């Protein structure tokens, strides 16, 4: 793991949809990053939840025309995989220590160094939100904004800790059985799409279930162990001065933790939106509900839809949270803001 002091690219492959896959050697092991877009544009870094990668966590959002035109026109997207979560990944050797959440946050910094990136926009989902929030605390000058979906900020409750231990034991002894996939799907999605004995699960759940079959259980076990060992970062939230947009599904098991996090962020820089009839992974279950809030959020950086944008290559320079984020009627019927007052 620590054989070299420099990050080096050891493999680059062209994959579908024009993405370029890089495997980068860091002090904390190999990490895979898939890059979409013009690297002269501002950078948007993504990090998914446990057992997911960009295809199972962000593809729904990037297939949503309104959101895709906004994000792909304005940013170069850098999808960071949790270690060993890329397609075709080999099991990570048990001789390699499991990284801590601080190690994973510092690994993100090494990824930025490899690509020569300065300040970036960060976009994380649940466990990925925690990693990127921790990264923002440790490297405040390198984060211009945070987009967080059903984020975590506290150490695990006893209930979550034991539940994660149960999933860890399944991974360790049985790989990826149907019971574990059911546990993970309940973490990601609402009952509306999970189905029951009388209603078939939705296509999006079926697709995610199929993608979970491709994960190396050993590697998922390691990431779950890292997240289950996370520490409380609540005290550091007030020090974050980057603009933050939070989404949470109404039925997310992490709803109360998201409320806790949004209430501890500086009110001048944070807006939070609840998406009704939705689980944790809003990016897949209701990506259309995210487009308008994202547009208003990015207006504070001088970014617009393609037809309105004059220079997508210009550096990001935040001004304020758009007032429209405070207006429920401007964001669609499925949305209601958690934060209703932001003083600037």
Automatic annotation (TrEMBL):
It comes from the Eukaryota. Keywords: Membrane, Transmembrane, Transmembrane helix. It holds the Pfam family Ndr. Gene3D superfamilies: alpha/beta hydrolase (3.40.50.1820). InterPro entries: AB_hydrolase_fold, NDRG. The chain crosses the membrane at residues 114-136. The keyword Transmembrane helix applies. Belongs to the NDRG family. This is Pollen-specific protein SF21. It comes from Zostera marina (Eelgrass).
């Amino acid at each position: 793991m620590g054989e070299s002091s420099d990050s080096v690219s050891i493999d680059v492959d062209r994959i579908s949809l024009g993405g370029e896959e890089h495997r980068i050697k860091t002090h904390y092991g190999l990490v895979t990053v898939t890059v979409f877009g013009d690297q002269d544009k501002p950078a948007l870094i993504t990090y998914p939840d446990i057992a997911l990668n960009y295809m199972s966590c962000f593809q729904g959002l990037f297939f949503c025309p309104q959101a895709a035109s906004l994000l792909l026109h304005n940013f170069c997207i850098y999808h960071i995989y949790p270690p060993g979560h890329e397609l075709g990944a080999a099991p990570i050797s048990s001789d390699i220590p499991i990284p801590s959440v601080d190690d994973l946050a510092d690994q993100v910094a090494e990824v930025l160094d490899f690509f020569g990136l300065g300040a970036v926009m960060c976009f994380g989902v649940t466990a990925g939100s925690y990693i990127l929030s921790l990264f923002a605390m440790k490297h405040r000058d390198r984060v211009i904004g945070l987009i967080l979906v059903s984020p975590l900020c506290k150490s695990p409750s006893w209930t979550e800790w034991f539940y994660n231990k149960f999933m860890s034991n399944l991974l360790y002894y049985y790989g990826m059985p149907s019971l574990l996939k059911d546990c993970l799907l309940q973490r990601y999605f609402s009952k509306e799409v999970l189905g029951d004995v009388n209603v078939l699960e939705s296509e999006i759940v079926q697709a995610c279930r199929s993608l979970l079959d491709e994960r190396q259980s050993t590697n998922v076990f390691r990431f779950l162990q890292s997240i289950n060992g996370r520490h409380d970062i609540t005290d550091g939230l007030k020090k974050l001065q980057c603009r933050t947009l939070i989404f949470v599904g109404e039925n997310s098991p992490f709803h109360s933790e998201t409320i806790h996090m949004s209430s501890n962020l500086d009110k001048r820089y944070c807006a939070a939106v609840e998406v009704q009839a939705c689980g944790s992974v809003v990016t897949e279950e209701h990506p259309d509900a995210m487009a308008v809030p994202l547009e208003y959020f990015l207006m504070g950086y001088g970014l617009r839809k393609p037809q309105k944008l004059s220079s997508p290559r210009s550096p990001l320079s935040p001004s304020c949270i758009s007032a429209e984020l405070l207006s429920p009627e401007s964001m669609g019927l499925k949305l209601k803001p958690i934060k209703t007052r932001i003083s600037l």
